[in-house]
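Two quick folds needed for the group meeting slides. Do the first one here.
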Amino acid sequence: MIYLEASLRVVPGKMNELMEVFEKEYLPVSNKLGRKLAAQWRTTIGTLDEVTDLWVYNDLAHMQQFQEARAKSPEFIKASEHLRALIAHETTRLMVPTPLSSMK
């Protein structure tokens, strides 16, 4: 398994709207196209207005299949545009578990 961590700095005052768009639009179409959300966190201390998603893929080929499918999906493109309007900055990292990780 491989994991994509996406840290989203939310436009101040837009957290509730972002969470609603994520739950009702972005997550369902992501799941439909084969991507699963392993975890999601939001900050309460430190940098505020930040959400971190952890997406799980079987391997790089699975991630590539998702990327190709999302590029062809009008539903995903619309949900992404709606979500992006609420994000001030995004950072992503591709990670693989170590032998000590409980997530394999």
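Then this one, please, same format:
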Amino acid sequence: MKEDAREMPENLTGKQAQALATLLAGSTVEQAAASARVNPVTVYRWLQQEDFRQQYQQARRQVVEQAASNIQQAATAAVSVMVSIMGDTDAAPSVRLRAAQGIYEQATKWVEVEDVQERLEALEAAMRGRKK
């Protein structure tokens, strides 16, 4: 996602959009204020305003979701590499073993996460049933 003041929602002023874009790029409030040519206190005040804060949080969520998507894509490639190494009879046995261990460990963690997810969903369903 390209953070650019021109892509910010229309209900922000140009200076707010610039500050928001700078914050999303990982800069400090002080740097965002300098970028928007306002006092840092102004940026802190904007962050207390519901509309600005919601847009900042939504944009941050989008950045995190994009990063998570990139990680998922890289994980698929990483597993392919590990499977390839594990099956490579020319590779050193210790390297093949480490690849196999990595695959096994991740598979085990995935099962544990799924189990916890199922238990959490059951608990949430039970709590919803009690509220009715």
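Slide caption for protein two: The chain has two domains: 1-87, 93-132.
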